[in-house]
Design brief:
Elements (H helix, E strand, L loop, with lengths): L7 E5 L3 H12 L3 E5 L3 H10 L15 E4 L2 H5 L4 E4 L6 H8 L8 E4 L12 H9 L6 E5 L4 H5 L4 E7 L2 H10 L5 E6 L2 H23 L4 H21 L4 H4 L2 H12 L4 H10 L4 H7 L6 H14 L5 H11 L4 H10 L8
Parallel strand pairs: 1-2, 1-4, 2-3, 4-5, 5-6, 7-8
Antiparallel strand pairs: 6-7
Helix pairs in contact: 4-5, 8-9, 8-11, 8-12, 8-14, 9-11, 14-15, 15-16
This protein binds nicotinamide-adenine-dinucleotide (NAD) and SN-glycerol-3-phosphate.
SN-glycerol-3-phosphate binds next to helix 8, helix 11 and helix 12.
């Protein structure tokens, strides 16, 4: 990996976050090639500098181009950034991996845990590409795509087990509006990012049911306690959960109408079914899948995880959002720090 900006970065794929993060990378001085699944998306980006499907009205910088050819996107890229839905990463990456340069650093922007395997995205990347921990990084924080694309100020965490690699990546994505901090706690950042989506669903349900700020603040706080319980059991640094990739992202997601997870939860709270919500949007709400994987992970490690458990039940249609609220409150009482 080059230590100075202006190298080539390949970004997969041209959804909301892949496109918004391409703006950050381009503003930071990288040449960005964005891979799109559909030729019309790539053509529009190249011809009009706009991703009409995911970020309409946002002009992309001239140093972002697009292609549907994965080999072309990856050729000469010393940083590969992955922003697909978490549940399709393994299949997608299996196709792309043979074209990734031998020493390229692979960065996950995804916030989910794979169903079935219960693997985090960094684990999937390792399994599919064979890359070691010094070549796998995570970028995670309170980064709603639309706000980032409008260049509203924000901060984030760049985590890699190798601190020097995290520092080099930090330079590659430090733009005038985007301030990245380094960390070596990949696991803590990934679990913070995946769990906040599930808590965002629960908060959305409360909003959809018509409850106010006491309810949402209680869910956010207990959701963070649940996240920290599991993350620390797995070896995360508790301070990561108090930082941008934990509390910061939780606050952004749970308070913003821009959050797809919070909106998904709000619709569940208003009585829509999961199938009806899926039919109404193409955008990914990772928590609707990761509630099951995080619930299973917590069970595997003997952690109490009522938020993940009840959100999973509501998403599966075996409980209503009101049932969830009633069940959460009816549990045995206990000490706050247990
Ligand atoms: N949008 C945000 O604000 C934001 C911010 C930070 C992190 N993230 C994370 O980034 C990841 C991607 O989210 P997004 O917001 O870009 O989602 P999105 O729904 O906006 O876009 C998803 C992208 O993946 C592509 N895609 C869908 N199914 C696919 C498949 N089977 N194979 C390959 N590609 C497929 C779509 O074409 C699209 O380009 C998620 O893990 C999300 O949690 C999103
Ligand atoms: O729209 P959401 O709920 O996927 O959240 C987007 C980002 O993860 C916020 O940091």
């Amino acid at each position: 990996m080059t230590s100075a900006p202006h190298g080539k970065v390949a970004v997969f794929s041209a959804g909301s976050w892949g496109t918004a993060f391409s703006i950050v990378l381009a503003d930071a001085g990288n040449d960005v090639t964005l891979w799109a699944r559909r030729p019309e998306v790539a053509d529009a980006i190249n011809a009009r500098h706009e991703n009409v499907d995911y970020l309409p009205g946002i002009e992309l910088p001239p140093n972002v181009d697009a292609t549907t050819d994965a080999e072309k996107a990856l050729h000469g890229a010393d940083v590969v950034v992955l922003a697909t839905p978490s549940q399709t990463l393994r299949e997608n990456l299996t196709e792309w991996a043979p074209h990734i340069e031998d020493d390229a650093v692979i960065v996950s922007l995804m916030k989910g845990v794979e169903l079935g395997s219960l693997n985090r995205m960094s684990e999937v990347i390792h399994q599919v590409t064979g890359a070691g921990p010094e070549r796998i990084a995570v970028i995670s924080g309170p980064n709603l795509a639309k706000e980032i694309a409008r260049r509203e100020p924000a901060a984030s965490v760049v985590a890699c087990a190798d601190e020097e690699v995290a520092k080099r990546l930090q330079q590659r994505c430090h733009s005038p509006a985007f301030r990245p901090y380094t960390s070596v706690d990949v696991l803590g950042c990934e679990l913070g990012g995946a769990y906040k989506n599930v808590v965002g669903l629960a908060v959305g349900m409360a909003v959809g049911l018509g409850f106010g700020d006491n309810t949402t603040a209680s869910i956010i706080t207990r959701g963070l306690a649940e996240t920290a319980r599991l993350a620390m059991k797995l070896g995360a640094n508790p301070l990561t959960l108090m930082g941008l990739a934990g509390l910061g992202d939780l606050v952004a997601t749970c308070s913003s109408p821009l959050s797809r997870n919070r909106s998904f939860g709000e619709k569940l709270g208003q009585g829509m079914t999961t199938e009806e919500i899926y039919a109404s949007t193409r955008q990914v709400a990772e928590g609707a899948k990761s509630c099951s994987s995080l619930r299973a992970l917590a069970e595997q490690y003997g952690c109490d995880a009522p938020v993940a458990r009840y959100v999973d039940e509501v998403v599966a249609g075996t409980m209503t959002a009101q049932d969830m609220m009633d069940a959460v409150l009816a549990r045995d009482t206990k000490a706050e720090t247990d």
